[in-house]
């Protein structure tokens, strides 16, 4: 099947989307939060609001046509042990229910547009070619309400993301800093938005991924992970000038983003005392703070990152083991070997 044929197939609305469209046309206001919309987090809450505000008589099914829940977890979408990437279209006209995920999501506009809400007051409209990277635990709702919208969801296990994309963390740019915070900042409520026009390479890569998911075999998962890596690497190289970060957190929340960025930039020669001096806070408070925000002690956080960087350098450079050891901040070769083996086991 050619790319144009596959895109035409994706443009065809299925029966569930036609049903959703019917509901939307009869009572559109509750779908938009700047009109009379109210929060709903599941089908039952939506159904109750819909029937209260609908002028005519209509019957809605007891069970949602597509999954609607306050939390979308890995078990819902990664139903195979070997599955680390899930690809699916966002259902057109599906009510924009509020939810959060415990995995990482990329949303790419292959055609048309959609609205992403991160609060009742904050909504962004993504046009064709735009995409966002959404970390876990972001409260959000999504709404696509045109027949020609093709909004593609790419779901990635957080653990897989960390292992597969460790090389991207080594770059010195905004995307790398964002990915670092996604992995190690529990409550950093930021979304990265690529505000770019349609790109044939990315379009074709997405369409090829739809073809891959229809195949079976152990190689499918590896190819999907590789495809997402190609997607992000290409975006990082060619689209970095289009990056913007959006957040629903107060700008003065605390110093955590600055601290995590400092650790990221000085990982090979920092200590608890040097960070505490840099930010003028006590070592005791800093230690508790890092553990609370990341789930790691500073030593564990540094070891993970140093080992990830060492693994990338072993694969992608001609440096000797000793050279790599010094570059990532170790001086004892025996300790380095033990730490590397333990971390990569």
Describe the fold and architecture.
The chain has helices at 3-11, 15-26, 43-53, 74-77, 158-164, 174-184, 200-213, 219-238, 256-265, 272-279, 283-294, 298-316, 321-327, 333-344; strands at 71-72, 85-89, 100-101, 104-111, 113-117, 123-127, 131-134, 141-143, 150-156, 190-194, 243-247. By secondary structure, it is of the alpha+beta class. The chain folds into two domains: 3-247, Jelly Rolls (Sandwich); 256-344, Arc Repressor Mutant, subunit A, CATH 1.10.10.60. Helix 6 (174-184) packs across helix 9, helix 7 packs antiparallel against helix 8 and helix 12 packs across helix 14 (333-344). The chain is globular.
Looking at the structure, what is the overall shape?
globular
As a whole number of angstroms, the C-alpha radius of gyration is 22 Å
Whole-number tally of structural domains: 2
The H-level CATH homologous superfamily of the largest domain, spelled out, is: Regulatory protein AraC
The main pleated sheet reads as: 6 strands, antiparallel
Helix content: 40-55%
Strand content: 5-15%
Oligomer: single chain
Number of helices: 14
Give the N-terminus to C-terminus distance in angstroms.
41 Å
**Unreliable runs, pLDDT <50, ≥5 residues?**
249-253
User: Could you state the order of secondary-structure elements as H and E?
Assistant: HHHEHEEEEEEEEHHEHHEHHHHHH
Give a count of the beta strands, DSSP E runs of length 2 or more.
11
CATH first level of the largest domain: Mainly Beta
Strand order across the largest sheet: 2-9-4-7-10-11
CATH architecture name of the largest domain? Sandwich
**What would you call the structural class?**
alpha+beta
Looking at the structure, the CATH topology of the largest domain is: Jelly Rolls
Mean pLDDT: 85
